[in-house]
């Protein structure tokens, strides 16, 4: 089942990918889509949590974050295998995309590639939303900072030509569902752990 791209989705993608281009974003957006900054932030958060709450709670929070990331990524990859929507860089002329450390732009008369794509829905958006919600529950004082993370990463996926806006929105929704499930398990587990301690 291939999910069609609506005209408004294409127009919003083109606005973000082609009109709103800035040299600073050309440097920052590829970094925002890499995995290591996410895990570096999680490690820093765990160090902060260890100082504030103790090592046991910090390690439990890292475990919850890892579970959230894994579940969100798995769900996104299963969806991609079923939907087969082409990425913008595979289907739209004039799309800017970042590959092998360089920016390129498809020609205006670019013919869409054939075959199945892996655009719907964004695993990056899903994973960062699930991680952010889980971290926000585990580390409440860091909430304003971690909740900005999925917004930046989601926008980077559009800017890099990898996803349409609806891919990102669906990823955020899936990540939020995973994050809420982890949150429910976290509350139940932490309350039980505190009673037993």
Describe the fold and architecture.
It is a single chain. With 197 residues, this protein is mainly α. The protein has helices at 7-19, 23-32, 35-53, 55-83, 88-91, 123-138, 143-146, 149-159, 165-196; strands at 96-99, 102-105. It has a two-stranded antiparallel sheet with strand order 1-2. It is elongated.
Query: What is the helix fraction of residues, given as a range?
Result: over 70%
Beta strands, count: 2
Which geometry do the CA atoms define? Answer: elongated
Helical run tally: 9
β-strand amount? under 5%
Rounded mean pLDDT score: 88
Which residues sit in consecutive blocks of at least 5 with pLDDT less than 50? none
Q: Main beta sheet: strand number and arrangement?
A: 2 strands, antiparallel
How widely separated are the two ends?
Answer: 51 Å
Radius of gyration: 18 Å
Question: What is the chain-wise order of helices and strands?
Answer: HHHHHEEHHHH
Structural class label: mainly alpha
Number of domains: 1
Strand adjacency order, main sheet: 1-2
Summarize the structure.
This protein has 197 residues and is mainly alpha-helical. The chain has helices spanning 7-19, 23-32, 35-53, 55-83, 88-91, 123-138, 143-146, 149-159, 165-196; strands at 96-99, 102-105. The longest helix is centred in the C-terminal third of the chain and has 32 residues, at 165-196.
